[in-house]
Amino acid sequence: MIRKLTVFLSILMLAGLFPAGVKGAGPVAGSCREITDMAGRKVKIPANITKVLATSPPPSTFVYMIAPEKLGGWFFSPAGQARKYIPEKFRHIPVLGWGRQVSNYEAYIAAHPDLVFTSYEAGADSSRVDLVQEKFGSIPVVCVDNTRDAVGYAQTLAFMGEILGVPERGRALVDYYQNVLQEVQQKVSGIAEKNKRRVYYAEKENGLATDPPGSCHSQLIEVCGGINVAQCKIASGRGMTQVTMESVLMWHPDIIITTSPEFVRHAYADETWKKVPAVQKQQIHCAPRMPFNWFDRPPGVNRIVGIPWTAHVLYPESFPENWVKTRVKTFFSLFYHYELTEAELLSLIR
After folding, report:
1. Which end of the chain has a smaller Cβ tally under 10 Å, C or N?
2. Owning domain of residue 98
3. pLDDT tens-digit series, residues 220-243
4. Confidence at residue 121, expressed as pLDDT on a 0 to 100 scale
């Protein structure tokens, strides 16, 4: 009787050490937990997450940055020279999707993920999510918000870190992101309107497609204190509003940012483009693209490193090269799990 009483009291004492909902040991195999996703949906997910997929590029990149060992498949993966910036132990991850949204649900289901992340923007029609869940059957679909908002990544990084069971990783990435974003925004907030750089975002090989103010694709211009000169409507879908050469000449940008090396060659050789102030001053800047584009497409968390790069391009006097080098090197270590050499670092930012 004394032995039984001692055991009973020991159990009560141990139970008092743990708050409700927190276990003293790891999750039991096959157990589940209920979470509220970023669309406000109640979703039951496995307590132990080992493999996840995503239905579009932005959340796929989030997963790689937070917990690469749990990414069951890229939506698209770095290729060519960009592949070297992916550590060898993660190069085996297969590509299961391509484009803007998943189309081969059978391949996703056959991969047996514990859950699937899907992008959701506040106020969007939730019936689309219901349709995605229906197609995935018993595999839980978890909505994540702010995957395309360059000033809203913190909440999503923290949320996905919790879901993936690595909250400390999520917090580390949030800290880096918020520090860089706040530093840049504080410095550029003091720039008088008349002194702000006028920027044109040139897309496609001829440079006559762009995304105006308010578009997620050109957002880093405004985040970093520039004036997006494009006065045109935001194109629906994937963006890229077609404009004329006459409009570009009228907007007279000081700086051109592009993601197309072909456009850079075209602009410096074309007599009409040579009339644009940015071309005359040799201020065309092609955004680095390794392992993912730093400025746009996808307009996801990969653009965090584009914040210091864009700030340097617009205001090198306030954000000198050594400043951007330090932040890019830290970003690659934290987010891409890759340690840049000095030569690689200079090659990327220049």
Report:
1. N
2. 28-164
3. 999 999 999 999 999 987 899 999
4. 86
